[in-house]
Design a protein that fits this description.
106 residues, alpha/beta, four-stranded mixed sheet, three-stranded mixed sheet, Iron-binding protein IscA
Length: 106
């Protein structure tokens, strides 16, 4: 299961409304950073037939099959601190992260 806080869901809904199109957001991982893996987000206009679809707070979240094993149980939040803002990920599969927080290990 993949979930979003109300703040994260509202951010995605607002962005989709401003775009004027889109079915939801795709969350995945890619190899990057000093710890090995990084989160990748993209808005989805047409879902891939292989994606797993979750619904959280009226937002569709799409996960590709390769990323699902690393993201099962993920909670997404959206935080704003001073000039910094962005998604925060709480992942029960994560074993560590790099010092800057840009990448993680499982």
């Amino acid at each position: 299961m993949i979930e979003m806080t109300e703040r994260a869901a509202q951010h995605v809904r607002d962005f989709l409304d401003n775009r004027g199109k889109g079915e939801g957001i795709r969350v995945g991982i890619r190899t990057a950073g000093c710890s090995g893996l990084a989160y990748v987000l993209e808005f989805v206009d047409t879902p891939d037939e292989n994606d797993t679809r979750y619904e959280s707070r009226d937002v569709s979240i799409f996960i590709d099959p390769k990323s699902l094993v690393y993201l099962d149980g993920l909670l997404m939040d959206y935080e704003k601190e001073g000039l910094n803002e962005g998604f925060k990920f709480t992942n029960p599969n994560q074993k560590g992260e790099c010092g800057c927080g840009e990448s993680f290990t499982v």
